[in-house]
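Example 3.2
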Amino acid sequence: MRRDRGDDEWRSRERWREFFDERVPNDTDLSEEQLASLREAEIDDRLAASVDDEEIERRRRCAHYRLLDRLDTDLIRTYLDEDAEFWSPRAPVPTTGSGGWRRPSRPGGSTTGH
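Structure, written as tokens:
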């Protein structure tokens, strides 16, 4: 998968044909028909691999939901409750130096919350 850079020039089959043709060696043993077939297959692959930011976001959200479907609901609720408490503006602010209060580690050892 390749992120689409929003450049309309590279969404054009004609631009990809030019790109392909510029790179074909002069001494190729392929017939014109074979070369055209190979070129069109390559263009199809490149265009299919390009996705825009909206599609990337859609795929990301779908993947997150598939993952959430497989996790224990109580575990998710516990995590969200702990996360809300951890980031609460009413939570004590850590101090520097020895003896200061420190937020407890998150599951997995992180004290940053993520």
